[in-house]
Amino acid sequence: MEKLNRANELPESTSAFYFVKIWPFEDPELRENIVEAECAFQRKIQTRGKIVEAIKANKEEHSIIISELKTLIAENKQRHIVVEALQNHLGKFRYGNNTMQAQGTVLRSVVEELEQTIKMLSDRIVYEHISLVEEKRLVKEISDIKKAIIYLSTNRAKLQDTVDGNEATLTHDKVKIIDGIRKEQQAIRTKTEALEDELNVVDAEIASIQQDLVEATTRKYMAYETLQELRSKRVVKS
User: Fold this and answer.
1) Beta carbons of 172 and 144 less than 8 angstroms apart
2) Residue 6 neighbours by CB distance under 10 Å
3) How far is CA 104 from CA 10, 74, 123, 171, 181, in A?
4) Residue-by-residue DSSP string for 141-166
5) Residues 175 and 162 sit within 8 Å (Cβ to Cβ)
6) Residue-level pLDDT at 189
7) Of 105, 135, 188, 197, whose CB is crowded by the most CB atoms within 10 A?
8) What is the pLDDT of residues 30-65, one digit of tens each?
9) pTM (whole model) above 0.85
10) What percentage of the chain's residues is helix, strand, coil (to nearest 5)?
11) Does 20 have pLDDT greater than 60?
12) Band of the pLDDT at 110, cuts 50, 70, 90?
């Protein structure tokens, strides 16, 4: 019963008191300087932000160009492997290995040789004691050869069309296919050179904007220091 009476004696509501500190701004000139300094500081922040966004955009473009270059380099590598295999076959044929004609089409014989190369390299990885660096190199080489085989399989019809069907020997067929692939390589090199020029322009732009960013950052901190100095004067006067 006593507890209930005590509860009834408590006030129905309580009051809260807040102390708000109001800066007097006794000096109108100081107040104006602080407002101007705050505006200047915000402008410096915005300017720096725009520069950062410009750098991001250029770096994205840089990444896109690099990705395209890697693709072109890989495509050129595939064709290089195929041309080497064709030239190897051509050399064997010229030196009297006429039984190659019984192996079927030109491209099939090249694929068979590339597959044999993959097997040989795989056996080296499995059975030989080689360093980790050498193993990685062989794995990369196997990957490149597999991509070359995929290229041959995908473009078999187009490459075979380069043979007019009137040539009596395998040698002429191979030469025609090699010429066709080399034309593709030349087109790839042209694209690669154009992309490299574009990349140089983008990199130069990034370097220039990076310098702008350094200067903008310096100006931002200077504006901040000026603002803080003025605010400290206001605190002293208050």
Assistant:
1) no
2) 9
3) 106, 28, 27, 13, 20
4) HHHHHHHHHHHHHHTHHHHHTTS-S-
5) no
6) 92
7) 188
8) 888 888 999 999 999 999 999 999 999 999 999 999
9) no
10) 85, 0, 15
11) no
12) confident
Arithmetic mean of pLDDT, 167-182 = 66
Q: Which of 238, 236, 234, 237 is nearest to 38 (CA)?
A: 234
The token pair at 50 is 């725009």
Torsions phi, psi for 116 (to 5 deg): -65, -40
Number of Cβ atoms within 10 Å of the Cβ of 148: 24
Interatomic CA distance for residues 43 and 29, integer angstroms: 21
Residue type, position 85, single letter: A
Could you give the CA distance from residue 236 to residue 230 in angstroms, rounded to a whole number?
Answer: 10
Give the type of residue at 237.
K
DSSP 8-state secondary structure symbol assigned to residue 169: S
- CA 224, 229, 232, 237 torsion: positive or negative? negative
Q: Largest alpha-carbon pair distance within the chain?
A: 121
**Element containing residue 216 per DSSP (H, E):** helix 170-237
Predicted confidence (pLDDT) per residue in 69-91, tens digit: 998 988 888 888 888 877 776 65
Tokens of 232: 């400290």
How many whole angstroms separate alpha carbon 93 and alpha carbon 42? 77
Interior CA angle at 129 toward 123 and 134, to 5°?
80
The one-character DSSP state at 100 is G
